[in-house]
Design a protein that fits this description.
The protein has 14 helices and no strands. It is flat. The protein starts with a helix and ends in a 6-residue tail after the last helix.
């Protein structure tokens, strides 16, 4: 197992290095970085300031040297300053990441707790009414746009009924009931599609396992239905849902642009869109690098979960 984890960790480090290289190359391929700072009407700079910035960014050195200097600063947490507010990029990301983590973790728990059990139920009750209900939920869940779910939630539960809040995240209020009421609709909108994906993937994996020979042998030996489903079938069917789960969790932690925009949620996804509109390249670069780190960490955690669920993967 140690050799397997070391190998996967090494692949993760190589992936991060590749991600930083891609970000750096794209930053140079889009043109002279100084043009972002010297853009008329927003970021005008004097010749002295341009010369100082050229020296700071090492733009007078070969590209490979520029990359190594930029990588060294990035590893130490120096991602530069934002163009508009001139604040450290890392500090700006820290200000927004808490709201995204709160929404993402809650939505991931809800999607997992709803989708996987429904997928197991749909597979075990194959051909029954429960199976058809689950398949219809998976169909509509994956076909309905997230923004449509969000708008419907605001219309019915916030405007017409007045039960829930749909105006951002009240940071000055206690979690219950103020923040909790504001969290319900974004959570449902964000978890709707992943729950349907969980259901579909879990159902397919369970059906494949339930039709295998060792399950038939276990039933022939008189093993109870509960033990067959939870001890033998589900554990071997969890590999595909675990893979999807890691990607879904990372996607949630990165922030859903649509949900954060619809509900005015002050998170990373909304800030990424604003950085594009404001042409704030240092901030956008920092967000992209954070996304890359989260994806690598999520994939590594999924690899660890594989070895726990199915020890054969270690070998």
């Amino acid at each position: 197992m140690r050799k397997y984890l070391i190998q996967r960790f090494s692949f993760g480090i190589l992936s991060l290095i590749a991600a930083t290289l891609i970000v750096f190359v794209l930053s140079r391929a889009t043109g002279d970085p100084l043009l972002l700072y010297a853009k008329p009407g927003g970021y005008g700079m004097s010749p002295e300031q341009i010369a100082a910035l050229t020296e700071k960014l090492a733009l007078d050195k070969p590209l490979i040297v520029q990359y190594l200097i930029w990588l060294g600063r990035t590893v130490t947490g120096d991602l530069g300053n934002t163009l508009l507010a001139e604040q450290p990029v890392l500090d700006v990301i820290k200000m927004k990441i808490g709201a995204t983590f709160q929404l993402g973790l809650v939505a991931w728990v809800v999607a997992t707790a709803v989708g996987i059990p429904l997928g197991v139920l749909s597979a075990v009750k194959r051909g029954s009414a429960w199976d058809y209900i689950g398949r219809i939920f998976a169909l509509f869940g994956q076909a309905t746009p997230v923004f449509f779910i969000g708008i419907l939630g605001i219309l019915f539960f916030a405007v017409n009924l007045g039960w829930l809040d749909a105006a951002g995240r009240p940071t000055q209020e206690p979690f219950f009931p103020a923040q909790f009421k504001s969290l319900i609709m974004p959570t449902v909108a964000l978890a709707w599609l992943p729950a349907a994906s969980y259901l579909r993937i879990t159902r397919s994996a369970m059906l494949e396992v339930l039709d295998s020979e060792y399950i038939k042998l276990a039933r022939a030996k008189g093993v109870s239905q509960r033990a067959v489903i939870w001890r033998h079938a589900l554990r071997n069917a969890l590999i595909p849902p675990i893979t999807v789960s890691a990607l879904i969790l990372v996607g949630f932690l990165e922030g859903s642009v649509v949900v954060e925009a619809v509900y005015a949620w002050p998170g990373i996804g909304r800030m990424a869109v604003e950085s594009i509109h404001n042409n704030d390249f240092p901030l956008l670069t920092g967000i992209i690098l954070m996304f890359a780190v989260l994806y690598v960490v999520g994939s590594f955690l999924a690899d660890i979960a594989y070895t726990i669920v199915d020890p054969r993967i270690r070998y």
